[in-house]
Design goal:
Layout: H1 7-30, E1 36-37, E2 49-62, E3 67-73, E4 80-85, E5 98-106, E6 109-112, E7 118-119, H2 122-125
Parallel strand pairs: 1-2, 4-6
Antiparallel strand pairs: 2-3, 2-5, 3-4, 5-6, 5-7
């Protein structure tokens, strides 16, 4: 004799599945995170954002001792913003590299949130040369 499941279980399971589907659609549309901006788009933003750009010199200080200070420029542009980052720095960090980090603009200086700096590998983001 086959056992029939309760219709209430089916209704609860379908309701949970529908809620999860709505949540996934919301996250995919709304982005589900902090907006990613270039230095030229940063002016007037008071909330936490992800800043992406190219490191330009000079680079001063150390991440753990008082903070690392450098300038970030638009990847394809000339707008710049000074950055202060107080944490360990990725091994690939250097002038000319593209980086992204979360933080806030405070008194004209972008203050990076510790543990959020990512250095992009240039070989993955540049066009291959024809030989």
């Amino acid at each position: 004799m086959a056992r029939r499941g309760s219709p209430a279980r089916l209704v609860v399971a379908l309701s949970v599945a529908a809620l999860l589907a709505v949540f996934l659609v919301y996250v995919s549309i709304a982005g589900g995170g902090t907006p990613s901006l270039a230095p030229s788009e940063l002016k007037g933003r008071a909330a936490e954002v992800t800043l992406a750009g190219k490191v330009v010199g000079p680079v001063r200080g150390k991440g753990r001792d008082g903070g690392l200070r450098f300038t970030l420029r638009d990847v394809k542009g000339t707008a710049t913003v000074p950055v202060l980052y107080r944490d360990s720095v990725p091994d690939m960090f250097r002038v000319g590299r593209d980086v992204s980090l979360k933080g806030e603009l405070k008194s004209g200086v972008f203050v990076g949130k510790p543990g959020t700096m990512i250095t992009k590998c240039p070989s993955k983001y540049t066009a291959k040369k024809d030989t």
